[in-house]
Amino acid sequence: MKKLISVIIGLLAICALLAFGAHNLQTSSGSNGSKVLNLYTWGDYIDPSLLTKFQKQTGYHVNVETFDSNEAMFTKIKQGGTSYDLTVPSDYMIEKMKAAKLLLPLDKKRLTGMQNYDPRFMNLAFDHHNKYSVPYFWGTLGIIYNDKFVQPGSIQHWNQLWQKKYRNQIMLIDSARDVMGFALASNGQSMNTTNPATLLAARNKLNKLSPNVKAVVADEIKMYMIQNEAAIAVDWSGEASEMLAGNSHLHYVVPSEGSNLWFDNLVIPKTAKHFKAIYAFLNFMSEPKNAAKNAEYIGYATPNQKAKALLPKAIRNDRQFYPDNRTISHLQIYQDLSPELVGLYNDRYLEFKMHH
Amino acid sequence: MQRKQKLTRNTAYFVPYTLWIVLFVIAPVILLIYQSFFNIDGQFTWANYQTYFTSSTYLMMTVNSVWYAFLITLATLLISYPTAYLLNETKHPQLWLLLIIMPTWINLLLKAYAFIGIFSQAGIANQFLSFIGIGPKQLLFTNFSFVFVAAYIQIPFMVLPIYNAVSELNPSYVNASRDLGATPWQTFSRVIFPLTLPGVKAGIQAVFIPSLSLFMLTRLIGGNKVITLGTAIEEHFLTTMNWGMGSTIGVVLIIAMVIIMWLTGSSKRRPRKGLTK
């Protein structure tokens, strides 16, 4: 009997410890003090020195928590529990979060820096009149090539990837939407197509690309391209800028016939609590000086046109990362597709990956 | 009274174990099976299973998974059996065993990244190939490198049970077999191997089953040129949010694992106690 009692006491003690631990974790990640801001963002997506500066200026301490996919962030916000004040979803995810009623509208009267943003990047389909979101960074999908293996300037269009001479030379980013997307663009189709036959045609075209595909990988692409492991890669501009910084032989091209244009915007999820801090932060990040500093640190393109003017000339005039208006006019933003269509894109993509 | 108390005491010992099994084994499996009967809109359906067994993509993937798991197990076995056998002959088998187990203390991801460095164009492996005059070869993203790295990771789990079986083998049987005129091959195939078979079976279970659902290595080392069911499960849970389909594949994998357990399970004709030491 004594043993039984001690076992039960032991179990209770473990439960108590776990409960205490869980309580502790919750309070530490969602600090409830009044002078804080809980920022939920992509890994390494803000210049840390700006956070210190923000705290010095306003007294608000910023807790940064990170996610690595829009979907993971969506699930966590939907569950609630942690009081995230600001998060940075991409375009289609803003649409999805809006539909799921997970976002709070911005109080425009409390925002001071909205006139600093480039009107081309405001009032877009995923958020009309910027009711919910403030632009943070934007970028494209494109081709990175190494001029040691590829004649400079000889790759300008998606269809050139299919040439026989690039056999086993190309690395693709492991993302259904982007790989299917560039195949669709190469066929002159919309990257948001809802037509199953068009998707099938895109997959068949991708299957023909597979002899040229060396690997379908994720973040590792950066490392491989810097180490001259592959001649060509298809990846996002933000990743490309990091590669270019690591290897001077690399170049980035946005095919002019069309590609993806993406946005990461700051939004207020319904879990938000510290509204004074939120607006202080949004206004702080809209200040040209701060936005420019952030853009220089992260290497992505800033939608803040006054900040862009402050950037060094070499960055500001870099057509690779700030493409001209003609190219921009051919770029397409991903729309939020129905779950069935997302499934279809992924099934076709999986079939392509199986085709070897 | 005394008896009854003893009984309750014994049941008390089972409480933590039962709780663990129910909470972390039985409940998740039931949830997984339950989830597999729902489509993406949350309606009850058999369609997930129908899709699985009529889709050439999923069937091909299943064949792929089993094939690669088989290759990995075979490679592991071919390396581990002689290793375990020789280990038993050495002076300090425990020390050598420790050295073999040591890599399992290192995180899987770190080991995978280390292999990326070794196999890359400018890596040590290619430097060596250039040195002996073969010239650099594409090593990463090949089926070979995938099986190699997976086997490397699984070897300790195969060596351990085989070593246990070999060390329990009574050497007098081997001596008797030799004395009675058996050739070394006969001694091995008729005496040593059958007596260590339980260890081999345990090793196969420990390697084949996890190998069936490897997914991270398929991307990191295989460059997604090797696609297994693990890849599809990851995609359904993380990208398409089609948990029903992901669960269905999970259930199929569980069934496949049960079959393996059953095939390699200890048969009822266990070797008599006297045969081992």
TrEMBL record, chain A:
SUPFAM superfamilies the record matches = Periplasmic binding protein-like II
Q: Signal peptide position in this chain?
A: 1-21
Checking InterPro entries in the record gives: SBP, Sperm_putr-bd
Subcellular localization is given as: Periplasm
A single Pfam family, by name? SBP_bac_8
Keywords, A to Z, come to: Periplasm, Signal, Transport
Which PANTHER family does the entry mention? SPERMIDINE/PUTRESCINE-BINDING PERIPLASMIC PROTEIN, SPERMIDINE_PUTRESCINE-BINDING PERIPLASMIC PROTEIN
Task: Report the protein name in the record.
Answer: ABC transporter substrate-binding protein
| Species of the source | Lactiplantibacillus songbeiensis
TrEMBL record, chain B:
Q: Which residues form the ABC transmembrane type-1 domain?
A: 62-264
Looking at the UniProt entry, the stretches that span the membrane are 12-34, 66-88, 95-119, 139-163, 241-263
Per the record, membrane topology reads: Multi-pass membrane protein
Q: Does the keyword Coiled coil apply?
A: no
* Coiled coil start-end: none
Instruction: Please provide the record's keywords in A-Z order.
Output: Cell membrane, Membrane, Transmembrane, Transmembrane helix, Transport
Q: Which Pfam families match?
A: BPD_transp_1 (PF00528)
Coarsely, its chief localization is: membrane
State the compartments where it is located. Answer: Cell membrane
Which CDD domains does the UniProt entry name for this protein? Answer: TM_PBP2 (cd06261)
In which family does this protein belong, per the annotation? Belongs to the binding-protein-dependent transport system permease family. CysTW subfamily.
The name this protein carries in UniProt is ABC transporter permease
Phylogenetic placement of the source organism:
Bacteria, Bacillati, Bacillota, Bacilli, Lactobacillales
